[in-house]
Amino acid sequence: MFNTASTTPEKLLQMLAALLLFAAIMGLILFLAGRVGGGKRGNTIVGYLYLAPAILMLAVGLVYPGLRTIYQSFFDAAGKAFIGFDNYATIFTDNDQLTVLRNTVFWVLVTPFVATAVGLVYAILVDKSRFESVAKALIFLPMSISFVAAAIIWKFVYEYRPDQGNVKQIGLINQIIVWLGGTPQQLLIESPLNTFLLIVVMIWIQAGFAMTVLSAAIKAIPDDIIEAARLDGTTAWTMFRNITLPSVRPTLVVVLTTIAIGTLKVFDIVRTMTGGQFNTSVIANEFYSQTFRADNQGLGAALAVLLFVLVIPIVVYNVRQLRQSEAS
Amino acid sequence: MFGLPSGPRFRAALAGTVSAGLVFSMAACGGDSDDAASTDSTASAIDCAPYTKFGDLKGKTVTIYTGIVTPEDTPHIESYKPFEKCTGATIKYEGDKSFETQILVRARAGNPPDLAIVPQPGLVKQLVATGKAVVAPAEVSANVDQFWDKAWKEYTTVDGKFYGAPLGASVKSLVWYSPSEFKDSGYTVPTTLAELKTLSDKMVADKKKPWCAGINSGDATGWPITDWMEDFMLRTAGPEEYDKWVKHEIAFNSAEPTAALNAVGEYLKNDQYVNGGLGDVKSIATTTFQDAGLKILEGQCSLHRQASFYAANFDKDTKVAEDGDVFAFYLPGQDAASKPVLGAGEFVVAFADRPEVKAFQTYLSSDTWANTKAKLSSGWVTANKGLDQANLTNPIDKLSASILLDPKATFRFDGSDQMPAAVGSDAFWKQSTSWITGQDTKTTLDNIEKAWPK
Q1: Do A262 and B1 touch (CB under 8 A)?
Q2: What is the dihedral sign for C-alpha B419, B290, B198, B334?
Q3: Which CATH architecture is the domain B55-171+343-412 placed in?
Q4: What is the pLDDT of residue A5?
Q5: What are the domain boundaries of chain B?
Q6: Are residues A106 and A225 in the same domain?
Q7: Which residues, 6 or more positions from A189, have their beta carbon under 8 angstroms from its beta carbon?
Q8: I need a labelling partner for A293 at 20 to 30 A (CA). Which of A30, B57, B71, B388 fits?
Q9: Nearest CA to B114 among B321, B379, B398, B352?
Q10: pLDDT band of B42, cuts 50, 70, 90
Q11: A136 and A13: one domain?
């Protein structure tokens, strides 16, 4: 039963067995919970019983692999010899790895702020306008496309054809360059320009998310405050500076941090558009390449740990802001 | 993607995932159902005499796991039919696109197939290191001694033990060209490297950009340059130095490899030679390897160095033949007498030594199988000397086989496939890509040397 199933009936049978096992365990837990008496102590036990499956799965699926990855990051490429912090030293001294860190810094500094700014400005501009829903749908659409699909679309936008005989451009940007009288450029080769061109894709996707969440926050600003401000004769800028911005500040922080976390983990766009070539690799992509292609499990693990360490403070901040905004 | 998780949405996503998983798992097994009708048509013609030595294997099953998927899997499955018919054994064929990572996972987890078709000697070594691979039986070893050039046997010999016979092979030392262009312009197929250069210069004089190349291949970008460099290493330094280079007995940045890469640079980094119909030198980096050679058909490029499997990239209406739209010639050696051939191939590695597995393994290493397979497929060759070249139908297969089986040829396996992964499938690719986009030869080779695991 625990062998790899190869035929359809075998696979279905295995799935059925797994579902039955799951139902049986849940049944057992519910049964045990039902037997526990009432009272404060009883309730605590019932609480722990309900938590048990989730904790078990987190332990097996998250905590154990996490600890194991940290452990592996102190070992060499084959995972056999202990080499201490050498992998981490490599990340901070090797030229290729420093480029990876530099690119990750570009991504994290640019994407959240630009995406949020675009989303905020857009949300304010279309707020209460006649075409609000259509305008919002337009900028939200990229959100519904997968990263890989978005990357393929933009790869075509940046596509290059030589300025040679009757060869026609098929990329939008290069066609515009040609219309303006320039010569077509191989946009994805020049570093660090190429990294920023990839960041544009992420902003294109994330601006819709920022806009939707911020637009809801703007609508939640009480009308009386706005009316009072209008009666006082505020300009649009003071209104934005003194009313809108302070009111949506908690939401703004959540949006910024959520995008920042997503950006730190970006992988699909880089892998699809350049494969990490031409100095465009970022931590998540490099981690994959080192582990699965270069067969350097130690360095791969160290990169994964670094990514984890970088994400933690943002997640903590994000959760605290979320709690604060819920409390108020 | 980063929406805050909410109950119903998550449940919907979960349901979607589960049902998608179901559909995929069903689709995955839909493919490998055996085609009963075709068995009968070939069965009557089978002469079971060569199979009697395998004995009666009725009711026995052998599983074979490969990275060969549709449509190339059909001739494979068909070629097992005579064996199944005559011995009574059942062969279970499992093709998987992610074979190269999955086979390691399966071997390490103690769930390997009986046989695996492994496309790289490096991966064979990794599999042997898991301790699950089984030494090849004496019959297979004898077949390899009889039917293959001795260079082949070394590729799967680890610590003096031989682990598996070669299966298919491909020739990499090929240059694609347009026979009609050659005829119209009075070009002739070069027989030495110097003639290749003269031909290229002649094309430049005719106001052409002779060569087209493309090395983009997703995260494997750069690999076609490794083939170029290997081909030139074989020619400028010779097979002995090539072997030392592959085994890292000479440094990657020593004189011979430097000369080889510079020789490649005379073609690929020469603005007069490249990149026909595709742009300047740097456009090589952004052109996919699949697209590059197609410019020959459009008349924008005359020469394209790529392996025999490139034939599959031309569409069905293109005639790939010596008198057709496009064909290939052997990338010549330093002089007409030396014939170094760069190629690749697959090896059959066993993880079980049951009698039926041994029998099937022996069958796959025999001339009987090689000829059965040759009759069934197009776009496939083997370096098995028992192959009757008359059984090949496709012109490019005939050319490949004639190069592989030429007694004067010196075969060498793709070097990057034998190097450690940190070089062969990482630094070598990456640095080659940087090299084509402007980095100098010395920095490139120094960086690769630095990446070699100590």
Answers
A1: yes
A2: positive
A3: 3-Layer(aba) Sandwich (3.40)
A4: 64
A5: 55-171+343-412, 174-340+416-451
A6: yes
A7: A278, B282, B285, B286, B437
A8: B71
A9: B352
A10: very low
A11: no
Asked whether residue A66 falls in the same domain as residue A91, the answer is no
The predicted-structure confidence for A280-318, as pLDDT tens digits, reads as follows 999 999 999 898 888 888 999 999 999 999 999 998 998
Residue A78 domain-assigned? Answer: no
Alpha-carbon distance of B56 to B60, in angstroms, equals 9
Query: Rounded to an integer, what is the distance from CA B252 to the centroid of its chain?
Result: 23
d(CA A290, CA A288): 6
Partner-chain residue, chosen from A7, A186, A294, that has the shortest CB–CB distance to B422: A294
- Chain B contact set for A7 (CB, 8 A): 29
Residues in chain A closer than 8 A to B111 (CB atoms): 3-4
Which of A11, A160, A278 comes nearest B279 by C-beta?
Answer: A160
- The reply to whether B100 touches chain A by the CB within 8 Å rule is no
Number of domains in chain A: 2
Here the ipTM equals: 0.79
CB of B27 within 8 Å of a chain A CB? The answer is no
Identify which of B92, B283, B430 has the shortest CB distance to residue A160: B283
pTM, two decimal places: 0.82
Type of residue numbered B452: W
User: Do B322 and B103 touch, CB atoms closer than 8 A?
Assistant: no
Residue A289 and residue A186 in one domain: yes
CB spacing of A162 vs B427 below 8 angstroms: no
**How many angstroms separate the CA of residue A161 from the nearest CA in chain B?**
7
* Same domain, yes or no: A214 and A113: yes
* Inter-chain touch B433–A277, beta carbons under 8 Å: yes
Give residues 282 to 321 of B whose Cβ lies within 8 Å of A: 282-283, 285-286, 300
Task: Tell me: do A61 and A183 sit in the same domain.
Answer: no
Q: Are A61 and A160 within one domain?
A: no
CATH tag for B174-340+416-451 (out of 3.40.50.970, 2.60.40.1090, 3.40.50.150, 3.40.190.10): 3.40.190.10
Q: Evaluate whether residue A131 is within a structural domain.
A: yes
Q: What end-to-end distance do the CA atoms of chain B give, in Å?
A: 42
- Using the beta-carbon criterion (under 8 Å), do A188 and B286 form an inter-chain contact? yes
A294 vs B285, B300, B425: nearest CB: B425
As a whole number, mean pLDDT of residues B197-218 equals 93
Inter-chain CB proximity B1 and A296 less than 8 Å: no
* Residue A213's CATH number: 1.10.3720.10
Q: Which residue has 């067995």 as its token pair?
A: A17
Do A181 and A112 share a structural domain? yes
Locate the chain B residue with the closest alpha carbon to A76: B453
Domain housing A184 = 86-327
Q: Which residues of B touch A292 (CB under 8 A)?
A: 101
Look at residue B40 in the predicted model and tell me its pLDDT. Answer: 41
Contact B453 A77 (CB under 8 A): yes
Residue B450 is given by DSSP the state H
Is residue A210 a contact partner of residue A90, using CB atoms and an 8 Å limit? no
Binary contact (B425, A275; C-beta < 8 A): no
Last residue of a domain, one of A24, A40, A72: A72
| Nearest residue of A to residue B429, measured between CA atoms | A277
At B177, phi and psi to the nearest 5? -155, 175
